[in-house]
Here is the input.
Amino acid sequence: MAASKTNAPLALFLAVNLLFFALASGCTTCPGPTPKPKPSSGTCPKDTLKLGVCANVLGSLLGLVVGNPPVKPCCSLIEGLVDLEAAVCLCTALKANVLGINLNVPLSLSLLLNVCSKKVPKGFQCA
Here is the structure.
């Protein structure tokens, strides 16, 4: 009978541990691993021809167009892109002269990105 009295606390300890671990590992609403954002490849995921709507914005910024054309059509095209992707898209459009204006590419790129609350990535060269 002495052996059962000394085993009772041990049995209770083991039972509580089993219960605790069963509850702790039985998580039904545990968040899964968060997916890592894929690194930008430095390519433009948008149709560059659609960026022609940025010509009005750029013309206004450079004083070529009178009035204040809406920036929303241009900025909505690069919305959701990281700065590098937006810069690549606009750089491609500027170099291809999709906008139909002869201009200073680095300055124009910087102006368009700033209007759309984006930044020219450090070290980025639109060549």
The two ends are 89 Å apart (CA to CA). The helical segments are 2-25, 54-61, 72-78, 83-95, 105-115.
